[in-house]
Amino acid sequence: MSPNEPEYGFPATLWRAVERRRPPLPRFRSSVRGPRFTAWLGLVLLVGMPVVIVTGLLSYVAYGSAPIPGDVGFLRPPAFDWPTSPAWLYRVNQGTHVLLGLVLVPVVLAKLWSVVPKLVAWPPARSLTDALERGTVLLLVGSLLFEIVTGVLNIQYDYVFGFSFYAAHYVGAWVFIGAFVAHVVLKLPHMVAGLRRREDPPDHDLVADDPLPPTISRRGALTLVGGGAALVGLLSVGQVLDGPLRGTAVLLPRGRTTAAGDGGPNDFPVNRTFVSTGIAAAATGAAWRLDVGGIRLDRAALLAMDLHTADLPISCVEGWSTQQTWTGVRLRDLAALAGVPEPTSAVVRSLETGPFAQAELHEGQVLHPDSLLALRVNGADLSPDHGFPARLIVPAIPGVRCTKWVRSVEFRSV
């Protein structure tokens, strides 16, 4: 049977009628396209995309009881106590998710380019199987582009969406996962066949009937795509590394924004500045007090307590992270002071308002020996941008849950 004829059972008269009414769709004549070229790109995505998916879902789980991803109904991620060890767990997870996601963008775009003749093939479907395949491709392409666009915009800009990025990105991810699984089931045999072939069959949908003279070989095209992915990686890896490479992270301007800019102890990235919160300066001045179970403590009283120092990272959902040396009072010592020596959870509240104005911690996070109400960083008092007069620092949790400008800590025993 010719590829231009319907499969058995498809009404031939309807087929011919639809085929005769072909709209003015573009025709593609590149000699680079073909099932082998597409199969190699598909193999890279088949290996890389599951890693992006799993790390993305784990990122939402790490938020625990925080209002993220929002009201997503039955798609709500399962609740369990996110581990506090190793301290770099969230840093590696989210850095991998964002960095690998960016690196795969050139591969995704090349894959879309390679199959575009299939996307605009006429008639729209030759059989029920073909219609199902085209439907999954539509969902796959649409959801993937949505995830890429919203993800990159969230990295670049601060809350530019008229909707919840977290909820939309999460639901979009599940649409992509469903389409991705269906597409793999339908196309895996074709990908395997494409990888095994030495030559493309001349009657394949992706092979041009009248190809133009090649301007690049298929091996050269794959090398070009790989080089583009490597370049994106080099321009992004600085987001998860401290030191000189931080300045090369051109795709992460917020992650390169420093609080001080003077090379001092507080000169490291920050997402949300003190000015942007709208907190009155007087609220963090001499009148500030920390409420711990009804006990009110000023900074002098906190500094007089047994202080602990720990090297811990801050890791944000945008993928950037940094490790600094923090000094403060252990949360478990504050719990004992408040008369709750064996807390099962804690709620830390900030002077600011909004969805991230508080963080709820489970027992393991409260009692970890490096979980701190930090007062200093790198031997100096916290700057206003880093949460002065006090902020939360807990191993392995998302940075947005390390509440800044803390006003109270409530320890619970039930």
Question: Could you walk me through the main structural features you see in this protein, from its secondary elements to its overall organization?
Answer:
By secondary structure, the chain is α+β, with helices and mostly antiparallel strands. It folds into two domains: 12-239, no CATH class; 274-412, Sulfite Oxidase, Chain A, domain 2, CATH 3.90.420.10. The chain has helices at residues 12-20, 35-62, 89-103, 105-119, 128-156, 165-196, 218-234, 253-256, 274-277, 299-303, 331-337, 363-367; strands at residues 290-292, 295-297, 307-315, 321-330, 345-350, 358-362, 372-377, 380-381, 391-393, 406-412. The strands form two sheets. A five-stranded mixed β-sheet has the order 2-1-10-5-6. Strands 3, 4, 7, 8 and 9 form a five-stranded antiparallel β-sheet that branches. Helix 2 (35-62) packs across helix 4, helix 4 packs antiparallel against helix 7 (218-234) and helix 5 (128-156) packs across helix 6.
List its traits.
single chain, 414 residues, alpha+beta, Sulfite Oxidase, Chain A, domain 2, 10 strands, disordered N terminus, OxRdtase_Mopterin-bd_sf, transmembrane helix
- The helix/strand class is alpha+beta
How many individual helices?
12
Helix percent reads 40-55%
Taken together, the total number of domains comes to: 2
The 3D shape can be described as: elongated
Largest sheet: 5 strands, mixed
Distance between the termini: 70 Å
Radius of gyration: 27 Å
Strand order of the largest sheet: 2-1-10-5-6
Task: Name the average pLDDT.
Answer: 88
Query: Strand content of the residues, in percent?
Result: 5-15%
Task: Work out the number of β strands.
Answer: 10
Low-confidence stretches: 1-10
